[in-house]
């Protein structure tokens, strides 16, 4: 198993986006990441990053009416998901599966590159994205969604965990490696600060979010934990604009 972290750029946000109630008006820069898993000749991509229009800082506002005063994308051409995969010598047709942890624009915005590849998503997430005010970038013609319900496994040793709270169909990921478990919280826990203090980020269901965090904390014993949008951790991992191998067996 090889685990690569891919760089999908950043979002420049009002701090209240990740710390609800914060009225400091301070801006913070949050990394946007994807993960590529390689195992026995199979390739699984987890999340697809921001839509191509995000390479223009005003692009999402112009095309989709997104409030860039609140969330402003920062993405170089080389941070588009197709370019990140190309840097590993891969194209869409080399992928066996794409997984969306959830359908927010910074996680499913690059889905447009993956027509013809199955895209696995929780049924609760598809339901809310269809009915709620999600930026309509997660669905494009030709996509084949594969619906999951609850925990499931895309590859041996890899478990997708249904961890609702941030959104109804949010998924986290636990990878068991000989060197020890690797836990990706994704947006169930944005940063180490949220993890340490138990502070919630943006959630659609407070009780479910707390329950999911408790579950992740149980699973985290002895594990290396990678948070969803933690710039300090991103820097500590030595991340650049290129895909980085962070674990292998
Ligand atoms: Zn996110």
Features:
7 helices, globular, binds zinc ion, Metallo-beta-lactamase, Chain A, 21% helix, 32% strand, five-stranded mixed beta sheet, 249 residues
Describe this structure in words.
The structure is a single chain. The chain has a single domain, classed as Metallo-beta-lactamase, Chain A. By secondary structure, it is of the alpha/beta class. A hairpin with a 2-residue loop joins strand 8 and strand 9. The model has no long low-confidence stretch (mean pLDDT 95). Helix content is 21%, strand content 32%. Strands 1, 2, 3, 4, 5, 6, 7 and 13 form an 8-stranded mixed sheet that branches. It binds zinc ion. Zinc ion binds next to helix 3.
Short description:
This protein has 249 residues and is of the alpha/beta class.
Secondary-structure map:
Blueprint: E1 2-14, E2 27-39, E3 42-46, H1 59-64, E4 71-74, H2 81-87, E5 97-99, H3 105-108, E6 118-122, H4 123-131, E7 144-148, E8 152-155, E9 158-162, E10 171-177, E11 180-186, H5 192-197, H6 206-219, E12 224-227, H7 231-236, E13 244-248
Oligomer: single chain
Shape: globular
Sketch the major β-sheet.
8 strands, mixed
Q: Termini distance?
A: 6 Å
What portion of residues belong to β-strands?
25-35%
In the CATH hierarchy, what is the architecture at level 2? Answer: 4-Layer Sandwich
User: What fraction, in percent, of the residue positions are helical?
Assistant: 10-25%
Low-confidence stretches: none
Bound molecule types: zinc ion
Tally of individual domains: 1
Q: What is the class in the CATH system?
A: Alpha Beta
The chain-level structural class is: alpha/beta
Let me know the number of strands. Answer: 13
Q: Averaged pLDDT, please?
A: 95
The CATH fourth-level homologous superfamily? Ribonuclease Z/Hydroxyacylglutathione hydrolase-like
Number of discrete helical segments:
7
CATH topology: Metallo-beta-lactamase, Chain A
Radius of gyration, in angstroms, nearest whole number: 17 Å
- The H-and-E topology, N to C, reads as EEEHEHEHEHEEEEEHHEHE
């Amino acid at each position: 198993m090889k685990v690569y972290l891919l760089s999908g750029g950043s979002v420049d946000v009002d701090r209240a986006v990740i710390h609800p109630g914060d009225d400091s008006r301070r801006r913070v820069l949050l990394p946007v990441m994807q993960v590529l898993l390689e195992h026995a000749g199979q390739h699984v991509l987890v999340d697809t990053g921001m839509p191509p229009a995000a390479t223009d800082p005003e692009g999402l506002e112009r095309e989709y009416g997104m409030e860039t005063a609140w969330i402003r994308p920062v993405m170089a051409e080389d941070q588009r998901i197709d370019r990140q995969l190309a840097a590993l010598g891969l194209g869409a047709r080399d992928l066996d599966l794409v997984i969306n942890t959830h359908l927010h624009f910074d996680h499913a915005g690059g889905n447009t590159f993956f027509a013809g590849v199955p895209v696995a998503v929780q049924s609760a997430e598809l339901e809310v994205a269809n009915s709620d005010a999600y930026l309509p970038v997660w669905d494009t013609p030709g996509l084949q969604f594969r619906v999951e319900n609850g925990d499931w496994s895309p590859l041996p040793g890899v478990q997708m965990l249904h961890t609702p709270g941030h959104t109804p169909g949010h998924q986290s990921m636990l990878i068991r490696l000989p060197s020890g478990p690797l836990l990706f919280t994704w947006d169930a826990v944005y940063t180490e600060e949220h993890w340490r203090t138990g502070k919630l980020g943006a959630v659609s269901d407070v009780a479910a979010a707390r329950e999911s965090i408790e579950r992740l904390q149980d699973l985290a014993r002895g594990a290396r934990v990678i948070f969803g949008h933690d710039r300090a951790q991103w820097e500590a991992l030595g991340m650049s604009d290129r895909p980085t191998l962070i674990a292998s067996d």
